[in-house]
Specification:
The complex is a heterodimer of chains A (399) and B (277).
Chain A (H helix, E strand, L loop, with lengths): L11 E2 L2 E2 L5 H18 L2 H15 L5 E3 L1 H7 L3 E6 L9 H14 L4 E6 L3 H13 L2 E7 H6 L1 H9 L3 E5 L6 H14 L4 E3 L10 H9 L1 H14 L5 E5 L4 H7 L9 E9 L10 H4 L1 E5 L2 E5 L24 H8 L3 E7 H15 L5 H17 L4 E6 L7 H7 L5
Helix pairs in contact in A: 2-4, 3-14, 4-5, 4-9, 5-7, 9-11, 10-11, 14-15
Chain B lengths: L2 H11 L4 E7 L8 H10 L5 E4 L10 H12 L4 H14 L5 E5 L1 H7 L1 H11 L3 E4 L8 H9 L3 E6 L5 H10 L4 E4 L12 H12 L6 E4 L5 H10 L2 E4 L1 H9 L7 H26 L2
Parallel strand pairs in B: 1-2, 1-8, 2-3, 3-4, 4-5, 5-6, 6-7, 7-8
The chains are: A alpha/beta (399), B alpha/beta (277).
């Protein structure tokens, strides 16, 4: 495969991506893009970032050969990339560390962020505490009800959590509200965006900071296989853990890429969040990508058991990887994700996040198809502790 | 000459600034929009800005967000908005109409289909909040082919380079966002607005309007002294919200508020004219 150089200077991945932002934000976005281009090539900045990842996040995260799971599934050898072992329990911290460093270099003392399940909010509040930045997190009032522990975690870390009452009161509305804050406080504020979506340069910045995941896999797999894996599997909501895993392998055409979306109660029921599998191109939150929308272009509410996948958009680079055929996208229902949650917990003693459980469920399907002589890496993007209440409630258990 | 160009030329001759009220189409009930538009013209509006509801209005404050939700509850679509314009044109062939909204509803209709239908209905200008000039090539071609004016925003954060890009792409008038914030916010800095307007006029012959955060007749009057047009949105929409339960009241309350803006603006302009003969 030829060299992969996307996005272009204005953030386009083919017809996807771009900068579809209100005029007030255009100058700040262009300044951010320029500052990032400078620091991207700055060895000292990269060193600073890598050192924080090592000493504060605990990287590299292990690549764990899941031998019992492999035996149970009777197919390809399964390796788990253990992002759940990072500080704060998910891959999100890789990106927030990077963007907090960017904010500091740009002289911004206040950060804002959106959060759905609270993972990105916690990861942002964490780095804000560490760098001494003022931090405001926007969270839909529906999500605040569902994720009270994460709300309290953010408050312990010194963040102000603002309840968003507009629209569907979930993640997409929290994104709108964070943008409105940024429009208002643009001089001193940095928006720490949580995924590979949004206007350019965010899809580029977040992908780059997360791609440490895939770079580690490249050398870690050598110890076991002596070659690159045959397949990578990751869940896709906005798509940051998947992009982080996929990006360093895009030019290696022998490595198949599988993104797994949330099919919720089933795509046919309409209650799902499978944007790439069941949506169509449109413009939301600053970029052109796939969306879940009505025939009149209104964004629709999504459903997934996993709050982190419950988003009607998806990063534009995924839209491009789908359209170019480089990656394939499938969807897994709530029910199958829940079964995978239990299966991994019992087989390997690892409680996966419900988001990551979607990837596990798809890997189970894929393993026998690939066959015993193949190797696949599954992104275990976060740990499941945050989901114990959800799982227990589904089984009728009250604490 | 387009309706917008004609209107601004006439106002210039009269040494008057355009008053542009904004209402969300279909808020709070679909039947009210067209009669209200006529009443606003009667109260002294020179151009009408008609909001197209969108589920995720990123640049709007709570007042217009709620208006969008009310309109969407009435199932208002872009196609309905165009029908309203068509109906308005039966009785009023002259007053220019600008649609204001977000890109996605237009994107799904298709730029060309939209431009054709909008021009056919009698729309004059289109302001798409989340479409900066950089991404606008396709839309500009479609609008220009149908004689529609692309209205662009300039903001307090826009540097000289960006003002130039906006001026190159824009038609009809340039809409200066008078504050850092969402629609309906409340922290106007008049000195900054004055300076910024001077800067913008260096790069364009187009009229320059001002909007965002203009809530009272006094502010509208002050803006009328320095701008070619004054856009008032949230202050009108919140009056509609107050009367949402009895919509017929909107047809008297809102035009009387718009008339008070008109009076204040005209007074300010004639005072200015006396000072600078």
């Amino acid at each position: 495969m030829s060299a992969y150089t996307l996005p272009d200077a204005r953030g386009h991945f083919g017809k996807f991506g771009g900068m579809f932002a209100p005029e007030t934000l255009m100058q700040p976005l262009l300044e951010l893009a320029e500052a990032y281009q400078r620091l991207r090539a700055d060895a000292k900045f990269q060193e600073e970032f890598m050192e924080d990842l090592r000493l504060y996040v605990g990287r590299p995260s292990p690549l764990y050969p899941a031998r019992r799971l492999t035996a149970q599934w009777g197919g390809a050898r399964v390796y788990l990339k253990r992002e759940d072992l990072n500080h704060t329990g998910a891959h999100k911290i890789n990106n927030t560390i990077g963007q907090a460093l960017l904010a500091r270099h740009m002289g911004k003392r206040r950060v804002v962020a959106e959060t759905g399940a609270g993972q990105h909010g916690v990861a942002t509040a964490t780095v804000a505490a560490r760098f001494g930045l003022t931090c405001v997190i926007y969270m839909g009032s529906e999500d605040i009800k569902r994720q009270s522990i994460n709300v309290y975690r953010m408050k312990l870390l010194g963040a102000e959590v603002v309840s968003v009452e507009s629209g569907s009161k979930t993640l997409k509305d929290a994104v709108n509200e964070a943008f409105r804050d940024w429009v208002t406080n643009v001089e001193d504020t940095f928006y720490i965006f949580g995924t590979v979506a949004g206007p350019h340069p965010y899809p580029l910045i977040v992908r780059d900071f997360q791609s440490v995941v895939g770079r580690e896999v490249r050398w870690q797999i050598m110890e076991f296989e002596g070659r690159l894996p045959d397949a990578l599997v990751a869940c896709v909501g906005g798509g940051s853990n998947a992009m982080g895993l996929f990006y360093p392998f895009i030019e290696d055409s022998q490595v198949a890429l599988y993104g797994v979306e949330a099919a919720g109660e089933g795509i046919e029921t309409g209650r799902h969040a499978a944007t790439l599998c069941a949506g169509r191109p449109g413009v939301l939150h600053g970029s052109r990508s796939y969306l879940l929308e009505t025939n009149d272009g209104q964004i629709i509410e999504t459903h997934s058991i996993s709050a982190g996948l419950d988003y009607p958009g998806v990063g534009p680079e995924h839209a491009w990887l789908k359209e170019s055929g480089r990656a394939r996208y499938a969807a897994v229902t709530d029910k199958d994700a829940l079964a995978a949650f239990h299966e991994l917990t019992r087989a390997e003693g690892i409680l996966p996040a419900l988001e990551s459980s979607h990837a596990i469920a798809y890997a189970k399907r894929l393993a026998p198809e690939l066959g015993r002589d193949k190797a696949m890496v599954v992104s275990l993007s976060g740990r499941g502790d945050k989901d114990i209440h959800t799982v227990a409630a589904l089984e009728g258990i009250k604490f | 000459m387009s309706r917008l160009a004609k209107q601004f030329a006439l106002l210039k001759k009269q040494r008057s600034a355009a008053l542009i009220p904004y209402v969300m189409a279909g808020d709070p009930a679909p039947w009210i929009t067209v009669p209200l538009m006529h009443a606003l013209v009667g109260a002294g509006a020179n151009v009408l800005e008609l909001g197209v509801p969108f589920s995720d209005p990123m640049a709007d404050g709570p007042v217009i967000q709620r208006a969008a939700i009310r309109a969407l509850k009435q199932q208002i679509t872009l196609a309905h908005v165009l029908d309203m314009v068509k109906e308005f044109r039966v009785k009023d062939p002259a007053t220019p109409i600008v649609l204001m909204g977000y890109l996605n509803p237009i994107e799904i209709m298709g730029y060309e289909a939209f431009a054709e239908r909008a021009a056919g209905a009698g729309v004059d200008g289109v302001l798409t909040v989340d479409l900066p000039p950089e991404e606008a090539d396709g839309m500009l071609a479609a609008l220009k082919a149908r004689g529609l004016d692309p209205i662009f925003l300039a903001a307090p954060t826009s540097g000289t380079e960006r003002v130039r890009a906006v001026a190159r792409a824009a038609g009809g008038f340039i809409y200066y966002v008078s504050l850092r914030g969402v629609t309906g916010a409340g922290h106007l800095d008049m000195g900054e607005v004055r300076e910024k307007l001077k800067g913008i006029r260096k790069h364009t012959e187009l009229p320059v309007g001002v909007g965002f955060g203009i809530r009272a007749p006094e502010t509208a009057a002050e803006m009328a002294r320095m701008a070619d047009a004054v856009v008032v949105g949230s202050a009108i929409v919140s009056r509609m919200e107050e009367n949402a339960a009895s919509p017929e009241k909107i047809l008297t309350e809102v035009p009387s508020f718009v008339a008070s803006l008109r009076t204040a603006m005209d007074k300010a302009r004639s005072a200015t004219a006396e000072l600078t003969p």
